[in-house]
């Protein structure tokens, strides 16, 4: 109980800090005509995860110099920074990172080298607490799985960019508003797609535990995962066997591999449980590479939803059709 209370207190502190930050940012957005922006003088912004980089790019567009440290398909949990990352972090005026320990290597480097303002964008979302060994709980970092959290993150990024470059307030506000509208459509579209899956098949088994927020937001509970919320751990033979038994017991037709993780073991689970492993892998902790069907946050969430709905026997209708009809 004491552990839970302490972690709740920590969480409350984070919320209070997040609220203060938003108020502060809002209160500082005065135009600054003394600082005209030439191409070289655009403020340098670093985003750690590809998801945060994509949201930031859509709000900041041409008014910022954005560097995304993680590249599409890279696993943030185990990423080991390279010297170029230190240089990017040192030069940045603003660093937008996920937090809740999604990217431990980069958070450590950032805290030792970066002078710019640092904002844990993902920590603006209310965390789910995941139980670790010995009764300890930790916040689940995969907050973007619920699109409503991505809307919260978009607002945090917008406010941070406005404080960084107040003369661009109008353009940041407009671009953020457009993105928020798109995210609202995405959110209700996912709900409708998942609801087409027969209720007894509406259960998700994935490689690592990255879909708790998605499952709760869209009514598809997580029935099992091969590994926990961090990909550092290796599943034991016993864990694999238990998951095979669980998949057989719940009677779902498919389980899922992920783009950022080697699919060897989840293939074994699928083969032993005699269920399908769709060739379309889920985008869990990163957007896809440019030109892939998941090369933005909206597209990755849409592609994941299609993969899940089709594999579990639902009726998928493209997001584009939904947006036109609305
Ligand atoms: Zn993860």
**Cofactors and ligands:** zinc ion
- Strand adjacency order, main sheet: 2-1-3-4
Count of all domains: 2
Head-to-tail CA distance between termini? 47 Å
In percent, how much strand structure appears in the residues?
A: 5-15%
Secondary structural class: alpha/beta
Query: Total helix count?
Result: 11
CATH superfamily of the largest domain: Nitrogenase molybdenum iron protein domain
Shape: globular
List the helices and strands and how they pair.
Elements lengths: L1 H26 L16 E4 L2 H11 L4 E4 L14 H9 L2 E4 L6 H10 L3 E4 L8 E3 L5 E3 L7 H18 L4 H26 L9 E5 L3 H7 L3 E6 L9 H14 L13 H10 L23 H15 L7 H7 L1
Helix pairs in contact: 2-5, 2-6, 3-4, 5-6, 6-10, 8-9
Bound molecules: zinc ion.
Give an overview in words:
With 326 residues, the protein is of the alpha/beta class. The chain has 2 domains: 39-190, Rossmann fold; 197-321, Nitrogenase molybdenum iron protein domain (Rossmann fold, 3-Layer(aba) Sandwich). It has helices spanning 2-27, 50-60, 83-91, 104-113, 147-164, 169-194, 212-218, 237-250, 264-273, 297-311, 319-325; strands at residues 44-47, 65-68, 94-97, 117-120, 129-131, 137-139, 204-208, 222-227. It has a 4-stranded parallel sheet with strand order 2-1-3-4, sandwiched between helices. The chain has a two-stranded antiparallel sheet with strand order 5-6. A hairpin with a 5-residue loop joins strand 5 (129-131) and strand 6. Helix 2 (50-60) crosses helix 5. The longest helix is centred in the N-terminal third of the chain and has 26 residues, at 2-27. The protein is globular, with a radius of gyration of 20 Å. The termini are far apart. The model is unreliable at 1-35 (pLDDT under 50).
């Amino acid at each position: 109980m004491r552990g839970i209370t302490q972690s709740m207190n920590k969480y409350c502190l984070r919320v209070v800090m997040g609220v203060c930050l938003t108020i502060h940012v809002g209160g500082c957005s005065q135009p600054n005509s003394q600082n005209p922006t030439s191409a070289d003088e655009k403020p340098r912004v670093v985003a750690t995860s590809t998801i945060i980089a994509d949201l930031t790019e859509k709000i900041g567009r041409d008014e910022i110099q954005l560097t995304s440290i993680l590249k599409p398909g890279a696993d943030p949990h185990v990423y080991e920074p390279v010297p170029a990352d230190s240089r990017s972090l040192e030069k940045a005026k603003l660093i937008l990172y996920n937090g809740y320990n999604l990217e431990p290597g980069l958070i450590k480097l950032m805290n030792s080298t970066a002078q710019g303002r640092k904002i844990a964008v993902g920590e603006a979302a209310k965390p789910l607490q995941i139980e670790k060994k010995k009764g300890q709980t930790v916040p689940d970092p995969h907050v973007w799985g619920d699109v409503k959290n991505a809307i919260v993150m978009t607002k945090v990024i917008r406010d941070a960019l406005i404080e960084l470059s107040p003369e661009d307030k109008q353009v940041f506000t407009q671009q953020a508003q457009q993105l928020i509208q798109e995210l609202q459509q995405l959110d209700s579209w996912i709900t409708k797609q998942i609801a087409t899956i027969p209720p007894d098949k509406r259960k998700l088994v994935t490689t690592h535990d990255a879909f708790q927020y998605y499952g709760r937001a869209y009514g598809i509970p997580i029935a099992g995962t091969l590994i926990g919320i961090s990909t550092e751990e290796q599943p034991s033979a016993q864990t694999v066997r238990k998951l095979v038994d669980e998949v057989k017991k719940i009677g779902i037709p498919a389980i899922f591999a992920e783009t950022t993780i080697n699919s060897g073991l989840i293939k074994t689970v699928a083969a032993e449980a005699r269920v399908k492993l769709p060739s379309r892998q889920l985008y869990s902790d990163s957007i896809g590479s440019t030109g892939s069907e998941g090369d933005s946050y909206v597209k990755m969430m849409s592609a994941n939803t299609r993969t899940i709905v089709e594999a579990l026997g639902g009726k998928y209708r493209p997001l584009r059709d939904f947006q036109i009809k609305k």
